[in-house]
Amino acid sequence: MQSPNDLIHQPVRLKIMAALNTLGSRQWLDFVSLRSIVDTTDGNLGAHLGTLEGANYVQIKKDFVGKKPRTRVCLTAGGREAFGQYVAELHAILTPQNIDG
Amino acid sequence: MPPSRDEAAQALREISNVQARVAGFQDYRFEAQQLMLWGSLNMAGCILSALLQSHLLLIWGAIALSGVVLGTRMACRSSDAPGIAPRYLLIILSILLFDVILHVLFWPITPRQGGMIVPLFVATLYVIRGAQSRPRYIVLGAALALLCCCAYWFADTHYWWWLAFSWGGTLIVAGCWLRRC
């Protein structure tokens, strides 16, 4: 059996991908909201987002709202596909023939 | 090495928890915008009612119309859920219709009594919604009902001013609270 994506199979990155996957295509989530959903620190979230961005799973946009800086994150098409495949692989592990084996 | 069955089940549970958290988060965000809009409009309506007591029908007609137009536009912009505009209109128009029907059924009622119908109905809806899904709505509904009843019982000559803060003000504060969750 194929091993699920190791990049996604990490607690914080799994939460990030699951949160972004819930949103619609090309829908952005701001950094502060994502931190609240994932329940982690700024530094930890930033590091894991960097890893996911490096794999081209997420896209990060930095801009300003007035004078206030804002960071937003969005799942790429590749990221959405990888997450879908990851979930399918998890389900495959739990199917009866794999449990028996 | 592939994860064990327990690890896979744990990961799927985690995904499900995050999805529920995002859904709640989006729901509160969406509601926060609407609460702030309707809170501001109702506060304006109550203040105008205090100042121009002979034009209540005109004032509240304009407030309701503005709320429907602005709220529908806001709902369409902030959510890409299919059929959001018709569903939003159905909810708002049901509340307005409830208000009109109660006025007709129990006429004559005083403006003071009439002013309590929508706040108490909305408060009840929030408590029900909170009991079914998101607990913050219970707090909102209970606070709204309590403060509006206080305005009705204790504010004699300054009823509309009290209602401006207990009805409009509560919705605005609740909107800020949900936005920060």
Walk me through the structure.
Chain A is of the alpha+beta class. Chain A contains five helices and three strands. Chain A has a three-stranded antiparallel sheet with strand order 1-3-2. In chain A, a hairpin with a 2-residue loop joins strand 2 and strand 3. The mean pLDDT of chain A is 88. Chain B has 181 residues and is an all-alpha fold. Chain B is 86% helix and 0% strand. The radius of gyration of chain B is 20 Å and the shape is elongated. Chain B starts with a helix and ends with a helix. Chains A and B meet through helix 1, helix 2 and helix 4 of A and helix 1 of B.
Attribute tags:
heterodimer; A: 101 residues; alpha+beta; Arc Repressor Mutant, subunit A; 3-stranded antiparallel β-sheet; 5 helices; 54% helix; B: 181 residues; mainly alpha; elongated; Transcriptional regulator (chain A); WH_DNA-bd_dom (chain A); WH_DNA-bd_sf (chain A)
| Average pLDDT number of chain B | 92
Rg estimate of chain B, integer Å: 20 Å
Number of domain modules of chain A: 1
What is the topology, as strand order, of the major beta sheet of chain A? 1-3-2
Q: Tell me the CATH superfamily of chain A.
A: Winged helix-like DNA-binding domain superfamily/Winged helix DNA-binding domain
Helix amount of chain A, in percent?
40-55%
Question: Biggest β-sheet of chain B, characterized?
Answer: none
Describe the largest sheet of chain A.
3 strands, antiparallel
Helical residue percent band of chain B: over 70%
Q: H/E series of chain A, N to C?
A: HEHHEEHH
Instruction: Measure the end-to-end span of chain B.
Output: 39 Å
Tally of structural domains of chain B: 1
Assembly state (oligomeric): heterodimer
Any low-confidence stretches of chain A, pLDDT <50, length ≥5?
none
User: If classified by CATH, what would the architecture of chain A be?
Assistant: Orthogonal Bundle
Gyration radius from CA atoms of chain A, angstroms = 15 Å
Organism (chain A): Pseudomonas abyssi
Protein name (chain A): Transcriptional regulator
Keywords (chain B): Membrane, Transmembrane, Transmembrane helix
Transmembrane segments (chain B): 35-52, 58-76, 88-107, 113-130, 137-154, 160-178
